[in-house]
Amino acid sequence: MTESVYKIIELVGSSPVSWEEATKNAVKSAGLTLRDLRIAEVVTLDMKIGEDGKETTFRARVKVSFKIVSD
Amino acid sequence: MTESVYKIIELVGSSPVSWEEATKNAVKSAGLTLRDLRIAEVVTLDMKIGEDGKETTFRARVKVSFKIVSD
Amino acid sequence: MTESVYKIIELVGSSPVSWEEATKNAVKSAGLTLRDLRIAEVVTLDMKIGEDGKETTFRARVKVSFKIVSD
Amino acid sequence: MTESVYKIIELVGSSPVSWEEATKNAVKSAGLTLRDLRIAEVVTLDMKIGEDGKETTFRARVKVSFKIVSD
Amino acid sequence: MTESVYKIIELVGSSPVSWEEATKNAVKSAGLTLRDLRIAEVVTLDMKIGEDGKETTFRARVKVSFKIVSD
Amino acid sequence: MTESVYKIIELVGSSPVSWEEATKNAVKSAGLTLRDLRIAEVVTLDMKIGEDGKETTFRARVKVSFKIVSD
Amino acid sequence: MTESVYKIIELVGSSPVSWEEATKNAVKSAGLTLRDLRIAEVVTLDMKIGEDGKETTFRARVKVSFKIVSD
Amino acid sequence: MTESVYKIIELVGSSPVSWEEATKNAVKSAGLTLRDLRIAEVVTLDMKIGEDGKETTFRARVKVSFKIVSD
Amino acid sequence: MTESVYKIIELVGSSPVSWEEATKNAVKSAGLTLRDLRIAEVVTLDMKIGEDGKETTFRARVKVSFKIVSD
Amino acid sequence: MTESVYKIIELVGSSPVSWEEATKNAVKSAGLTLRDLRIAEVVTLDMKIGEDGKETTFRARVKVSFKIVSD
Amino acid sequence: MTESVYKIIELVGSSPVSWEEATKNAVKSAGLTLRDLRIAEVVTLDMKIGEDGKETTFRARVKVSFKIVSD
Amino acid sequence: MTESVYKIIELVGSSPVSWEEATKNAVKSAGLTLRDLRIAEVVTLDMKIGEDGKETTFRARVKVSFKIVSD
């Protein structure tokens, strides 16, 4: 009987709204080519400040796991 | 004179909305049985992805401190 | 709708055989009083060496999560 | 040709609303005296619980980088 | 033959004198309800500064292990 | 003269038997598509507990390195 | 309503007596120019050994937080 | 409006000259198949010692980020 | 009254069978020249993959403590 | 007798040549306004890749300590 | 011109009085056989609790550096 | 069949030129008394600043592994 195996890739998503949206954007882009996405673990969070000091972008660096071998 | 002593427990709260809500849910459940809750420190954040890839749940793993001996 | 909440406790199990057995022993002791045990994460592993240098005990420090509030 | 040099300061911002707002408040206060703010990296997040257990404050400890020497 | 199992709880003790006293206070409070206390590992140390900047309190965050199953 | 370059991917293998088997399963799945596998470094180990509290699965999260450019 | 903002600076204090004294010396020097000092977190501790191997100096590297914007 | 998403891969480059060259070699190999390379963060550095103890190779383990979705 | 002092050395043991055996091999080699071995803490675990991808060696990097001054 | 106190600031220097040069540039800029610079500890190293993938900049994030109170 | 080289060994000292004394005891034992001791960095601190719960021993795990090659 | 065992020692090398040279100097000093040196892992890097602020020394703290038991 084979055991399930997961692969983990590291992505950085961004959003002008929130870190939750930034995480969703990263997972959405992964979802375009990958199946069985399970969990997105937050590695780091930061906020990029625009030249004018006003406009800000929230960035979430996440590790996304997805199944590559099913048990 | 006795010195105050705090205890720290580790909880994982969840919410479909945000990591702030997930943290509040964890603290609320602790508050049912404990007094003098002080601070909830975030240990890790992740996002669980539903089978259909759409429905997501935000999870916050937090350490909650509360007073067990008052000075 | 309430969201599920998990609690995490930290235990050290031991075994003369292996770290897997030591982890199972820790979880077994937790299972006597707790329900819905989910995952035991390994924090650290070590091996205690007997006075004669021969007899060894494998110890696994683990964090065990279990459900305290069901969604 | 001189090379650009950045300085990094550590701040704790707070907000009753969210960790994003808390981060913005920290950066806003830095922006009053500093130019060329670039990035705010999240170091830790926590939530302070009011005496009544209800009122909560989200706190974000961030490292803010800004340019002190331009190339 | 059952193998011994230890549980680990996390406490914060305080003292106006020293970090050693703060650690002893945390362990003393644990000792009121628990047997077989073995080791208190220091997690972090800090010093709280009074409003007047004079009065200081030393705080020790420690993990205390105690036996819950005897071999 | 070109210098050798290695790539590192992150996988989670599982096994009902041991963490060694779980690691071998992860590497086996990688070996289906990749050559020159060199080393599997353990990142984290955990044990998943079945609904009945009995059936357990050992999971090993590993980083596997393999050569992509030969010197 | 503005939210309070704290700044954190990193200092190394020293003392021939103890790490508590070394921490107090670091905070005392900060207190000469700063108000509202709150907490000194210990980052690292070390002991410098004199040329003769006898005379020792205890050094505490601490992060001191103080209020720069009041709510 | 879509938000930009970056992917991060982990590589080990090597060079008999320096860690800077080793990093450039890793990035050069990535550049053969990937566009929009942004930053190579150093994870670890080491030096491999030849059998004769003379010949040495500098190795740099780096995380390279590149854009996969443009805003 | 002198206080006991322990020294800690770092070793890497290996075995084709398991990480427990690899740890025992490291301690056995230390035991040839040292007395009063107490504990072997696991620092890291990895698995070396043979050229043919089949033959694997489990390696355990451990810190072994032993008494050098008795109280 | 007052004890010496050091302050630590965090800077990011850069150079097209090497990480040593980047560290020197950071310290040089600090030296313009500060005396008694002692040590620059490397926190992280990275390499920024130009738009054309060719031009690279080595960046060193360092913590620089300098004396603010002399014993 | 040769450059100075330092070696670092890891010791655990203990004392019924304080962590400062425990560190001094570790360094004293090293000083019996080694010259040019420079710095003892604290790695971890803990407190061993006697069988009766009263008698306590403070233990300091330290890294001691000493010169083995003079410039 | 005995399994190979490696020992790891920690050294600090220095050089006025570069961190690569500092690492080589540390390994060279180890090589005077030890055989089968394999790898020098970088633990930390820093730069010591001379009294005049000009003369700088690059220091590399490394862990050097060498074989003590051959398979």
Description:
Chains A, B, C, D, E, F, G, H, I, J, K, L: Pfam families: Dodecin. Chains A, B, C, D, E, F, G, H, I, J, K, L: This is Dodecin family protein. Chains A, B, C, D, E, F, G, H, I, J, K, L: It comes from Thiovibrio frasassiensis. Chains A, B, C, D, E, F, G, H, I, J, K, L: InterPro entries: Dodecin (IPR009923), Dodecin-like (IPR025543), Dodecin-like_sf (IPR036694). The structure is a homododecamer of 71-residue chains. With 71 residues, chain A is of the alpha+beta class. In chain A, 18% of the residues lie in helices and 54% in strands. Chain A is built from one helix and three strands; from the N terminus they run E-H-E-E. Chain A has a three-stranded antiparallel beta sheet with strand order 1-3-2. The longest helix of chain A has 13 residues, at 19-31. The mean pLDDT of chain A is 91.
Give me a quick take on this structure:
Chains A, B, C, D, E, F, G, H, I, J, K, L: This is Dodecin family protein. The structure is a homododecamer of 71-residue chains. Chain A is α+β, with helices and mostly antiparallel strands and 71 residues long.
Q: Count the strands of chain A? A: 3
- By helix and strand content of chain A, what is the structural category? alpha+beta
The total number of structural domains of chain A is 1
Q: Terminal Cα separation of chain A, in Å?
A: 7 Å
Mean pLDDT of chain A comes to 91
- What oligomeric state do the depicted chains represent? homododecamer
Total count of helical runs of at least 4 residues of chain A: 1
User: Main sheet of chain A: which strands, in order across?
Assistant: 1-3-2
What is the approximate shape of chain A?
elongated
| Biggest interface, residues from each chain | C-E, 14 and 14 residues
CATH architecture of chain A: 2-Layer Sandwich
CATH C-level name of chain A: Alpha Beta
Low-confidence stretches of chain A: none
> Helicity of chain A, in percent?
10-25%
CATH fold category name of chain A:
Dodecin subunit-like
Largest sheet of chain A: 3 strands, antiparallel
